[in-house]
């Protein structure tokens, strides 16, 4: 089966066929699989295919049409590595808030380093930290800032907003409204979060918590 799209024209394709099965679906940027391992392997293969297509250059046919591989529905090039990294970080935040830590197996490197004093590196360490964790506030309004021209580093300025409804650093729920900022810097390697540094406005946060 072959698809061709005319350059400059937007298009949306929805293709699929499925029968009921007992497996939980794992959703990726490009595909859906029945296990995190299969999803990671499939998306690695897709990235390799994209690199191969990009290396061939302009594959425009004599008819003036261009194969749709490597183009988004706005007619521009496929999402850049930086845009893909933004999606990766949003999935990370969503996993923390939802408690679905299975996603970490796909998006967090095995030797992930949070650079926190007293905390050893590792994906399993990160899982243990967030296991049973109910965020007392919501991480929201993520604004991405590029701090490096290299595509493997993405800076994030995000707001921590919400109502203090759960225990936080020893403080019982107060019901007070919280609105503070935090700065995150992530290093991404082979499509996974590899390192993380954070600077948060704890002074404002504690002032709001203590009234």
**If strands are numbered along the chain, what order do they take across the biggest sheet?**
5-9-8-7-6
Provide the helix percentage: 25-40%
In the predicted model, the low-confidence regions spanning at least 5 consecutive residues are 59-77
- CATH topology title of the largest domain: Nuclear Transport Factor 2, Chain: A
- Percent in strands: 25-35%
Helix and strand content put the structural class at alpha+beta
What's the shape? globular
Number of domain units: 2
CATH class of the largest domain: Alpha Beta
Structure in words:
With 211 residues, the chain is of the alpha+beta class. The protein folds into 2 domains: 1-78, no CATH class; 79-211, Nuclear Transport Factor 2, Chain: A (Roll), CATH 3.10.450. 28% of the residues lie in helices and 26% in strands. The chain has 5 helices and 9 strands, in the order βββαβααβαββββα. It has helices spanning 36-55, 81-98, 104-107, 123-130, 202-210, and strands at 4-5, 26-27, 32-33, 66-67, 108-113, 138-145, 153-163, 177-189, 192-200. A 5-stranded mixed beta sheet has the order 5-9-8-7-6. It has a two-stranded antiparallel ribbon with strand order 1-4. A two-stranded antiparallel sheet has the order 2-3. The longest helix is centred in the N-terminal third of the chain and has 20 residues, at 36-55.
Brief characterization of the structure:
The chain has 211 residues and is of the alpha+beta class. It is built from five helices and nine strands; from the N terminus they run βββαβααβαββββα. The strands form three sheets. Strands 5-9-8-7-6 form a five-stranded mixed sheet.
């Amino acid at each position: 089966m072959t698809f061709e799209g005319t350059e400059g024209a937007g298009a949306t394709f929805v293709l699929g066929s499925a029968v009921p099965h007992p497996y939980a679906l794992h959703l990726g940027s490009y595909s859906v699989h029945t296990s995190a391992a299969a999803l990671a392997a499939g998306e690695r293969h897709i990235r390799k295919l994209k690199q191969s297509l990009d290396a061939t250059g302009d594959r425009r046919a004599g008819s003036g049409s261009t194969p749709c591989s490597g183009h988004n529905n706005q007619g521009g090039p496929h999402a850049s590595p930086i845009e893909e990294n933004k999606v990766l970080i949003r999935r990370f935040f969503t996993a923390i808030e939802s408690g679905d830590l299975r996603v970490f197996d796909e998006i967090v490197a095995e030797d992930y380093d949070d650079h926190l004093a007293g905390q050893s590196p590792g994906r399993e360490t990160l899982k243990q930290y967030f296991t049973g964790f109910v965020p007392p506030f919501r991480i929201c309004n993520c604004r991405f800032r590029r701090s490096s021209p290299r595509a493997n580093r993405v800076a994030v300025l995000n707001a921590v907003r919400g109502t203090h409804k759960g225990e936080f650093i020893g403080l019982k729920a107060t019901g007070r409204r919280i609105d503070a900022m935090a700065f995150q810097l992530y290093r991404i390697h082979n499509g996974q979060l590899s390192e993380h540094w954070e600077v948060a406005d704890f002074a404002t946060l504690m002032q709001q918590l203590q009234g």
